Amino acid sequence: MMERTAVKACATTTCAYNSDGCTAFAVTIGGAEGVASCTTSLTIDARGDLAAADGKVGACQRLECVHNTDLMCTASAVDIADHANCMTYEAR
User: Fold this and answer.
1) What whole-number distance in Å separates Cα of residue 16 and Cα of residue 69?
2) CB count in 10 Å sphere of residue 33
3) What is the pLDDT of residues 25-72, one digit of tens each?
4) What residues are paired with 32 via a beta bridge?
5) Cα distances (angstroms) measured from residue 51 to each of 9, 32, 65
């Protein structure tokens, strides 16, 4: 089984899973062609999931990204920007 890619940094301060870093067990990278984003990003009045910032990428739906192999992210780590955009995304 392949190692899941770590969410190195997340600047999406409105996300319920961001508590000094990504606390989601696994995020999904989706979005539209040419713009990859964290579709796990959730804005509600609660904080959730893991106690520590140890989020991983569970799936990647951006087939045109150079880091996507069989719907899994192969980047060493990903950075998520303020509006949940995946800054590690790179089109083929």
Assistant:
1) 28
2) 9
3) 999 999 998 899 999 999 998 887 678 899 999 999 999 999 999 999
4) 35
5) 16, 31, 30
